[in-house]
Amino acid sequence: MNDEQFLTIALPKGKLFNLSTELFEKIGWTAEGLTEKSRKLVITNEEKKLNFIITKTADVPTYVEYGAADIGIIGKDVIEESGKDIYELLDLGFGKCHLMMAVPKDKKRKNLTDYSHTRVVTKFPHIAEKFFTSQGMQMEYIKLNGSIELGPIIGLSESIVDIVETGTTLRENNLEEIVSIMDATARLIVNRVSFKLKFDRINSMVGDLKKILNDK
Prior knowledge:
This protein is of the alpha/beta class. It has helices at 15-25, 60-65, 76-82, 125-134, 150-153, 168-172, 192-197, 199-214, and strands spanning 7-12, 42-45, 50-55, 71-75, 87-91, 97-104, 119-122, 140-143, 159-164, 175-184, 186-190.
């Protein structure tokens, strides 16, 4: 069979990887050696005609938009930040977190707008800018890929915009959430062309996944 009959699935490294592979396993979509630590760039199941690629979280929407992957699993926060032209097929419900703004507890200001014209450190400058603009606020955005919490501690910024699950890291660094920006869960996304060309197979998969999710 030719490559057109394969489905290529982009899976993100990190917290969503095991949850994603466990979900696919329940519908029989897996491959030998499909682990996050695999050194193979593409992991194939010849019998099921599946290719799996394991990639950095932020790259999943790019692979899907350009058709290097037909489908992918990624957080809603990453989809919104990327601005990529993809279809969002299914809210998978896991990987729950929310994007918020936090500041040092001892430098908290009375109103949100009191932070206008200050610097904010974030991995999500597009989402942050959209939010603050909606509040009538102008901010200076500094994008970091590492420890966002460090920004206010070392005087790089007055605040952070970051993803929070439990809030432990905030507490450990004496930061306090002052406003929630958006909730996020893992989503199943698909390339627009793939959805047309491979509709039957993708639609059948979505139906199988819905059954699994509804049984939880």
